[in-house]
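DATA SHEET
Item: assembly model
Revision: 1
Owner: S.N.
Input lines:
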Amino acid sequence: MSLIEINNLKVHYPIRSGFFNRVTDSVKAVDGISFNIEKGQTYGLVGESGSGKSTTGKSVVGLEKVTSGSILYNGVDITSEKNRKKLNYNHDVQMIFQDSLSSLNPRKRIEDIIAEPLRNFEHLSKNEEKMRVLRLLDIVGLSVDALYQYPHQFSGGQRQRIGIARAVATNPKLIVADEPVSALDLSVQAQVLNFMKKIQREFGITYLFISHDLGVVRHMCNNIAIMNKGRLVEVGSRDDIYNHPLHIYTKRLLAAIPQIDVDHREEHREKRLQIEKIYQEQSSKYYDQNGLAYPLVKVSSMHSVALPPQEAKKYSEKEVEV
Ligand SMILES: Nc1ncnc2c1ncn2[C@@H]1O[C@H](COP(=O)(O)OP(=O)(O)OP(=O)(O)O)[C@@H](O)[C@H]1O
Ligand SMILES: [Mg+2]
């Protein structure tokens, strides 16, 4: 059984307008997505701004009201608050938020910020709590002085470490990491990512890792889902996505990874321009008349792609032959 199983998840936000403030339409932030996360692995959820990644992440931790579909945790649907309570789900599943400055209370000292989940879920003595917070600071590489300081006194990278310390305080089984390094310099990014991998090995944590950048996700994730306008356009192993991408949107995201290697910069630029041209010419083929992705079609054991009906037929016929 997978640790997390998401089935046809939809989160629609109502749009109200007019004199009576009636619901006239809805934003389909997440519009029917399904994927599984295996225990101890890192699952990447990647897409451009507004594609519905944070909404998905918040639904998984129980912070977003789900319109329809289910999210199973060890086989139990946690979209129901009753089930979350019964499972002690909010203790086992934590989130690292996208914006470290606004997610850390500016009026609270670091000690209180990191201790908050402990106070909510574990009944520790003052002394035990202090020891736990000190150990967490040590794990994320911050000094004891941090205890009595406030979030604004830290750099972006340090704040992200504080967010991580808070997220791992209760020894969670699953962490939803929403763009944990996007606001950081490249050198600090690598530090935080290595650190996340280290605590994963140490504590056996499972991650849902959200990012807009396929470059960041590359060395973190076992499997990846590419999200576009509330739907998934491609799902596969790391090898499927990086070496055999089939959807034009995935190819475009891959071409957008910044090239650090100076020798190949020009070549990379050429390739990006070429993909952009193909995208402009052919992208309409990959979306239905409402501009939305087609249903996913299985192209190999792990790899599924939202192919247009004509191309999808080739794969379903192949399956019949087998
Ligand atoms: N509370 C809300 N009410 C109405 N619309 C919302 C709400 N939250 C998000 N949306 C809309 O849902 C869509 C998806 O938003 P979401 O924050 O999940 O995107 P994202 O992929 O995380 O983007 P980013 O990379 O910018 O963080 C967007 O169009 C957004 O405007
Ligand atoms: Mg987001």
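QC remark: The two ends are 27 Å apart (CA to CA).
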